[in-house]
Amino acid sequence: MPSTIRILADKEAIFRAAANEFTCLAEDAIEARGKFSVALSGGSTPRGLFELLTTDAYKKQVDWTRVEFFWGDERSVPPDDKDSNYGMARETLLAPLAIPDTQIHRIQAERADREQAAKDYEAEIGKLFGVKQDGSAPAFDLILLGMGPCGHTASLFPHTTALKESRRWVVVNHVPKFDTDRFTFTPRLLNGAVNVLFLVSGADKADALAAVLQGKPNPEEYPSQLIKPAGNLVWLIDKAAGAQLKKRT
Ligand code: 6PG
Question: What's the predicted TM-score (pTM) here?
């Protein structure tokens, strides 16, 4: 399916464009299917988008009672840890909008048995979508993604085992670089999405972004290259992150 690259002036322009995409996709999905399933990304970039969505300019455009929140990846920390992707979303989006727990499907990343926590998350996803794991991957209406300076996305880091996972939807992925386990959607689940929206900002991403978008296929080194959804793929990048992209003539 088509992929679109939009180069915007700066981070704030990315947030505005992402908020417009989010509200339009939510409206369409709720009208068509009565609900909007979204998997949020983590890290720091989405914070500005989440805060913008809670302002009067945007929050009134979405029937939040129909939105089901998931996370595309999580650190193996408790929900109130400063590094928790869920914790950041709760502070900047879920609490300000008073989203009820019944619509919040967080990864229980604090559990000692991480493998079971990943399997339970898969079961929770399957239950909401009414699909079994041996069937086709569930189709999230929207998956938000970021990209790290090394070209990783979600918690699919270079040369880690999750890159090759072809059956599971959610796995525990050991990341030697940080000597930690992460929970992550697999490429299979990410690529089942109806819409994938990357938010990439900052000069520190420029080299990796050029390699991901215009370099030779090398997904072991640049895992973001694995993201080829059945649906639409939109890259919202700012000028600094796009600085190494060659202009298409
Ligand atoms: C995480 C994220 C990760 C993030 C990128 C970009 O848990 O860290 O899900 O994939 O999107 O690392 O992070 P920044 O937006 O903070 O640069």
Answer: 0.98
